[in-house]
Amino acid sequence: MKIKSLIAITLFSASFSLFAAESNTGTIEVQSSIQAPQKALNDYEKIMTEKVWITTEAVNEKGNKVPADNEQVSNYFGLAEYYPDGTFIMFTPEGKQKMQGDWSISEDGKTRTLVAKDKEGKTLFTRDVENITVKDTEYTYRIYPNADDKNTYFDIIHHIKK
């Protein structure tokens, strides 16, 4: 009788241990498939995150300020937030959301890439800009109205919103 009880207890313990191991493994697999690993941010990307950037001015190639309502620069004015997970969101100066998607800055800090996406995550367009300044309190990039003419450009200047 004692042997039968020991066998039953042993089988029950083994079954329970096996079930627990399978359950834990299943949980780990599900969690790892949900939590995709984040890429490490480079030094330039670290500067951009955890802040709200506001466009403060646009300046042409001659150093002259260009009004925010100028049709060549007006779309670049607003607010932007860049998140450590590689996503971003942008708003108009009035606070209306205008763009969202993925972002990155090249390792050398010279290029910022935006991949704008719709609400379903479908890519709308990709835009690369030449970075001029990437500092803790200022971010400036250059746009060219005509990609074939590097003599005519606008520097879009951003500071941290206070």
TrEMBL record:
Q: Does the keyword RNA-binding apply?
A: no
State the signal peptide span: 1-20
- Any one Pfam family here would be DUF4822
Keywords in alphabetical order: Signal
Q: Which InterPro entries match?
A: DUF4822 (IPR032247)
Q: Which Gene3D superfamilies match?
A: Domain of unknown function DUF4822
Q: Where is the DUF4822 domain?
A: 46-159
Which top-rank group of organisms is this from? Bacteria
List the protein's name. Answer: DUF4822 domain-containing protein
